Amino acid sequence: MARLKLLSVYNPKLQKGEKYGYFSAVLHLAPATLSGFNTCPKASGGCAAACLNTAGRGGMFKPGTNTNKIQEARIRKTRHFFLNRTEFMIELVKDIEILLIMAEKIGMTPVVRLNGTSDIRWELFPVHRNGETFHSIFEAFPDIQFYDYTKLPNRVRIPANYHLTFSLNESNSSDAKKMLESGMNVAVVFRGKAPKFPAKFWGKPVINGDDSDLRFLSTGTMGAVIVGLSAKGKARKDTSGFVQDVIES
What we know:
- This protein is of the alpha/beta class and 249 residues long.
- Helix content is 24%, strand content 19%.
- Strand 9 and strand 10 form a beta hairpin.
């Protein structure tokens, strides 16, 4: 079978979704302006410092260095996206088609997260598949569930198969509250781990977002919820306000 060029399926958080029958793939680009191009237009100082880009193997550097093969690959992919957009989107389509085959072989449902370490408006980029032109990757694969986190408050006309969760940082609480009231779930990073998350935050119930990465399942009759995430990596030492220390609010 052909190898995936852009997407990754070997991620501990993604693999937690397998117990629910989902086979997840994620696209990791270089965050913020690390590649020379800005992939996170609403990045704050706190979220940039605590970015999951350096979590796990992505943050394992040899003594005296500040990069590794994973970081270099993410930068290459990002530059490829900005400098060779058409070719990049063709490769992305091929990767998702391979993912479909992989998922079918193991009897699981494929799902895709395109902004693993970025915040790009994927709904704006047309793609070609099987000789047809589609408005976006979501339209090209209408039977696949896509999902992401975002800090962009003005994303409209989101495709039905694309689920977004708004992310709180130290400087966007006003936007986050508006998104919450509009019905969008809001992800909040807490200092402790579940079950030490508060029962409520901003008057909304807090659910355990560490259980899996399947944010499109974090819905129900209760309306919008707070998705609690534990501080990981550099975020554990955050003092900017990006990580919340509240007991309940």
